[in-house]
Amino acid sequence: MTQPTQTEREAQWRRWRAVADLYHAVFTGLILTVVTRRGQADAAEFVFRVFRRQQQERFLAGLDKLGLAHLPPAVAAAQYHYLSNWIGGVHVEYMYESDRKAWIRYPPPRWIWRGTAICGIPGEVSRAMLRGWHGNNGVALGDTRLGFVCTKQSVDGQDGLEGYYHLADAPLEIDQRVTFARHLEAPLFDPAGAPALPLESWPKQRLEKAYRNYAMEYVRTAAPVLVQVFGPEDAGSLLHLTGKLIGMQYFEEIAPTLGFARGDARVFAPFLQALVQAQDDEATLQASGHGFDLTQATWKLMDGVSDAHPACARLLDGLVEGLAAGCGRGIGIARTGMMPMLWRVG
Fold first, then answer.
1. In a domain, 217, yes or no
2. How confident is the model at residue 341, as a pLDDT?
3. Residues in the chain with pLDDT < 50?
4. Residue 53 and residue 168 in one domain
5. 137-166 residue pLDDT tens
6. SS3 per-residue string spanning the chain
7. Are 73 and 143 found together in one domain?
8. Based on the structure, what is the number of domains in the chain?
9. Is there a single domain that holds both residue 186 and residue 288?
10. Least enclosed by CB within 10 Å: which of 120, 157, 224, 267?
């Protein structure tokens, strides 16, 4: 098999980054949709469930993958957040203070609340993220003395989200595992003191794919959680609406990276094939009497998700409809089936 050239590899990486941008927007959009359509309390519950599920599925495995499992609990937890988020393109700072205390800081701009989205995120929703993930790391490590103290929250108008992991002298109760100390401030970040990935096991190709997968993983978690929390009917509507809004907003941003511009169905059909393939899914395209048929043989985003409800596909329906609307007026889209999916474009 002929190996791709450097130019071909770089083009592939750009396509992966376009997919990452799209799914990053979908995830932030889902949270905003729940905030505006369901209210702060429901949005906080949704965010808590998403981040708790992510934490339970990824934290311990990630420690091993990143070579951090041997470290003291506070240091391991802080370095995990630094390295795992760095892989996803999130700007994070890490400051070691002692084996029992280590800081992390997410300076502006915040990745998760991209652009103007931060103006729509209540503090309650941001706190739910900390309760879902940061407050459960000690439980996962089998040491409930480990807690997280939050000293700043960017959504409250402070200059970033920051805090420190600390190992207490005694086990912490549930409501003690995330606390707040707004009078404190993180020490300055020194990049020379931050951990680094071993380059031999994290080559450029792996990093670029991980960058794409980082954003997609949030949507992979969020869609089934939304269905489980709010039920298939309500969640399906929220998923479809979010997907359509994001698709309409993002076609012009990602299309040039995939080699396309605005147009009609003759443009959109191959664009959709290129997008599906950039997600590592199989897709074949052929002309038909009404326009084009695109057969999507896999949907790896939801592969292996044991509680994925058919309503999760409403997100994909909305996203494709929105992208079609962003490409050009009057492009018809209809999906039949699940595996494989048949997209009729015309």
1. no
2. 95
3. none
4. yes
5. 999 999 999 999 999 999 999 999 999 999
6. CCCCCHHHHHHHHHHHHHHHHHHHHHHHHHHHHHHHHHCHHHHHHHHHHHHHHHHHHHHHHHHHHCCCCCCCHHHHHHHHHHHHHHHCCCCCEEEEEECCEEEEEECCCCCCCCHHHHHHCCHHHHHHHHHHCHHHHHHHHCCCCEEEEEEECHHHCCCCEEEEEEECCCCCCHHHCEEECCCCCCCCCCHHHCCCCCCCCCCHHHHHHHHHHHHHHHHHHHHHHHHHHHCHHHHHHHHHHHHHHHHHHHHHHHHHHHCCCCCCHHHHHHHHHHHHHHCCCCEEEEECCCCEEEEECCCHHHCCCCCCCHHHHHHHHHHHHHHHHHHCCCCCEEEECCCCEEEEEC
7. yes
8. 2
9. no
10. 157
Q: Count of residues for the chain?
A: 346
What tens digit of pLDDT does each residue of 266-301 get? Answer: 999 999 999 999 999 999 999 998 899 999 999 999
158: in domain:
yes
